[in-house]
Specification:
about 450 residues; mainly alpha; 22 helices
Length: about 450
């Protein structure tokens, strides 16, 4: 028979332990200040060999200070799979650079990107210290920093459409982050984050930002569905989650159809109509026409699936392939392939975290992004399987991560945004496990008491 004393030793920490950082007066307020300030340093950008953010400079020093705290290394244990796969990716990239003879400036950029991704993950985790409230503050500030960065950017694409290239995603992130704040967990106020996200998704549609419209609408809809499920039953099975996922796919298709009709009929304005006609007046389709880079990245992977092509891989051959494939599909391209090469510096194009990493580092980069996809889907399941989760924040982060891994290039800012998304989702998994252990411990305690009475 299991003793009560033994069960006490196995019992999980109380739910208040997620807010331990704020309650410790010796460094709690300093930590809170860091949570509120550090995200805004990502809005300060320097142009050197590549794009460098102020956060890239600050994060290593902040991480060293956090690692000096007692037990800091042990606190990183929930991220051990993440760091192991990140090291595997780094090893693959190093081997690929050696095999392909990558230029020093290229592999320096590739290696530093991975190192900074790992540094940001560890820094955010230790800074927020498992606190749902602190991670919500960090998420809100990170979203505001994205808005600020988009509005002050000198990049011509961002200046032309700041909502699409940062402001829209930033505001939706802010709205989603509100769900971790206690004020938005009671009464009618608990529905405000979903309402804000839904309103911002409609604004995204009106501003011709299809991706953020779909993510916002799916996030709000899934969160409201999760609230309804949890109100009527304790949990949902994995088979039930599969049904919800299929329903989400159907709902996404409905959203796409609604956009296609609205854009083609000019309901969303002439700009949206012209863009829609340009992207559909070919053989590529709506999804591929805006991500035609995947055509050449798949061929590059097929030519070197194990070792890849090295950091910042460049090859005029794949520029020609990219140019030819675009012309075959009827996409709008320059008159000469050399113009494409001049514009892209003969960089092997990609429009996916997964495919881009595979092109550069080979097969050893795939497990990391495979793990992030599993993490994202597990987190989505956790939202409907357990109670008391900050639903919209987890859902939004999971959906953005899934979309970016499959359909977005690994841009300079991704080493910052992906770090936050991974931390939020790993924390959500930890909270699910803690509640499961807590319920198991309570049931075991009750069983021991019943046996003791007998």
């Amino acid at each position: 028979m299991v003793s009560v004393k033994a069960l006490n030793r196995l019992s999980p920490p109380k739910r208040d332990s997620f807010n331990v950082a704020i309650r410790k007066p010796e460094y709690g307020y300093v930590r809170l200040t860091g949570v509120l300030i550090i995200p805004f340093t990502s809005a300060v950008v320097f142009q050197s060999v590549g794009v460098l953010f102020l956060q890239d400079i600050i994060a290593p020093f902040v991480l060293l200070l956090l690692l000096a705290q007692p037990g800091a290394v042990r606190q990183l244990s929930p991220l051990k799979i993440c760091f192991a796969l990140l090291c595997l990716w780094f090893f693959g990239l190093a081997i690929s650079d050696w095999y392909n003879g990558s230029a020093v400036v290229d592999f320096a950029r590739g290696w530093s990107r991975l190192i900074l991704l790992g540094v940001n993950i560890a820094m955010i985790w230790l800074l927020c210290r498992g606190s749902a409230k602190l991670i919500s503050y960090y998420t809100i500030c990170s979203g505001l920093a994205s808005v600020l960065g988009a509005l002050t950017s000198s990049d011509p694409y961002t200046m032309g459409d700041p909502w699409k290239f940062g402001a829209g995603a930033g505001l939706i992130t802010v709205a989603a982050g509100l769900t971790g704040i206690p004020y938005f967990r009671d009464g009618v106020r608990k529905y405000l984050p979903e309402i804000f996200v839904l309103v911002l998704s409609v604004v995204s549609l009106l501003l011709n930002s299809r991706t953020m419209f779909a993510i916002g609408a799916l996030s709000a809809g899934y969160s409201l569905l999760a609230r309804w499920i949890l109100r009527h039953r304790r949990s949902i099975s994995k088979l039930g989650f599969a049904g919800i996922f299929l329903s989400g796919v159907i709902f996404a298709q409905v959203i796409v159809s609604a956009y296609e009709y609205s854009a083609s009929e000019g309901i969303l304005g002439d700009t949206a109509r012209q863009k829609y006609l340009m992207q559909t007046n070919n053989d590529a389709g709506l999804l591929l026409s805006g991500r035609s880079e995947s055509l050449v990245s798949l061929e590059a992977i097929g030519d070197s699936p194990i070792l890849g092509h090295g950091s910042w891989a460049k090859d005029p051959y794949y520029t020609i392939v990219y140019y030819v494939k675009q012309r075959q599909l009827g996409l709008d391209v320059p008159a000469n392939w050399k113009d494409v090469g001049f514009e892209t510096d003969y960089f092997i194009q990609s429009h996916s975290h997964l495919l881009g990493s595979w092109v550069e580092a080979g097969i050893l980069s795939v497990p990391f992004w495979g793990w992030t996809l599993i993490l994202a889907f597990s987190s989505l399941y956790g939202v409907v399987a357990r109670r008391d989760q900050p639903n919209v924040m987890i859902i939004t982060m999971a959906l953005i991560l899934i979309w970016d891994v499959l359909f977005s290039p690994f841009s300079a800012q991704a080493r910052i945004t992906k770090a936050l998304q991974i931390v939020v989702l790993v924390l959500s998994q930890q909270m699910v496990r803690a509640r499961t252990l807590e319920r198991t411990a309570k049931l075991s305690h009750q069983l021991v008491r019943l046996r003791a009475r007998r």
